[in-house]
Design a protein that fits this description.
Elements: E1 5-14, E2 17-19, E3 24-26, E4 29-41, H1 44-51, E5 58-63, E6 75-78, E7 81-91, E8 94-101
Antiparallel strand pairs: 1-4, 1-6, 2-3, 4-5, 5-8, 6-7, 7-8
């Protein structure tokens, strides 16, 4: 299995605040934790099990055996798209999970 895809785990912005002088909201700096993984489209069985429908895009992410996920993150970025964590899989003792596309 090749781990050639880059997946970014984005945590909440730190230091976001309202600037009283300008009257505008100032965004803080988001913490981004990048990992290499094997990312594939999920099969029909996984989609039906998770969502009961096929309309939503979901992917399966397999991390390298010694890789650890960040403790907290808001969302996941992959190929410029935003995804949300769905659930862990038990894929032969590998760290694997399902992520679903965030539909705006």
């Amino acid at each position: 299995m090749r781990y050639t895809d880059e997946v970014s785990f984005v945590a909440a912005s730190q230091g976001a605040h309202h600037d009283t002088q300008s009257g505008e909201w100032v965004d803080g700096v988001a913490t981004i934790h990048k990992l290499t993984a094997n990312v594939t489209d999920s099969g029909i069985d996984v989609i039906r099990e998770d969502l009961g429908e096929i309309a939503r895009r979901s992917k399966i992410v397999r991390l390298q055996p010694l890789t650890t996920l960040p403790d907290t993150f808001e969302y996941i970025e992959y190929n410029g798209e935003r995804y949300e964590f769905s659930r862990f899989l038990n894929a032969q003792n590998r760290k694997a999970f399902v992520m679903n596309a965030v539909i705006k």
